[in-house]
């Protein structure tokens, strides 16, 4: 656990430490030579070194050294000169050690802060902050890493606005730690590229699997175990269209409609990414009536990883996600995400054994927002109709508008 310094350099704490040193010195004067209470004050400069600024640590150390010098030179006159010099030198050494310790700790904390800033920047690049707005979709949720101090782990998610609709990914990498992060990054970067250029979800999944296989091949050269990734892909098209779903061995998702919560798993769900070659069967996306965009489509989706559904309380009971969703179906997505996260952490008493991710996907119109309109007053969507894919060749992205 990283202990932070007191705000404002520890002004109040500095005054308290100096008052403690003075109080012990006065008590030492009152108790005579038999009891040396002032020696207890030697911990005061060390406390300042850990919690106060460098300047205030110097002040506390100086006050301690002066107090000890006065006590040993005035209150203990029976000591010989050598004993007094040793006592005063000891006080100076304690004060000097506290100042040096403070300088070393501040330097280490500065290096830690720089490293943390770089790590946070890298982690934010890998996973975007929630909530996310994509066309007519509003995606709320949360991410909890099982590794203390880490912002990302073995779970992944992403939302891409493509010419074919909003494409959503949620996935779970086998295992956790740095190796899981590497495999997740390989899948994520592939999805971000393929989700925009490929017309079919099946092709997007093939690109993701190819990226993971190349990543595993590189790992095998170092003797590291290969990884697989479960993933769920969704494609939400223009208003009135159905959602396309492709599951790569991922757990079911949930559809909320009114007060009803329904658990769904695509009829054709394949093996996890990285294991697709075991059967040779092609992956297939299926149509789902869930999450249609438009004011007449109140359904919304909840996607998650098994870190949520397999979370246990101290008695070994699994987290009842469906029951909780039924209880909170009337909450807006952002409030639902906060309620789920707080309840999950309370249910496990803060002892999550695996990374946990939740995405709550809802149409902006169902949330009460108005649809953006064109200059002619017609409703528009950020998702353009999918261009026809040419036969016998790769799909080319639509041409960008010419710059004026």
From TrEMBL:
Residues 385-404 have a biased composition (Pro residues). Residues 371-404 are annotated as: Disordered. This is PP2C family serine/threonine-protein phosphatase. Keywords: Hydrolase, Membrane, Transmembrane, Transmembrane helix. The keyword Cell wall biogenesis/degradation does not apply. The chain crosses the membrane at residues 12-27, 58-79, 85-106. Residues 372-384 have a biased composition (Low complexity). PANTHER family: STAGE II SPORULATION PROTEIN E, STAGE II SPORULATION PROTEIN E-RELATED. The keyword Hydrolase applies. It comes from Streptomyces blastmyceticus. Residues 137-363 form the PPM-type phosphatase domain. It holds the Pfam family SpoIIE. InterPro entries: Bact_Sigma-Reg, PPM-type-like_dom_sf, PPM-type_phosphatase-like_dom.
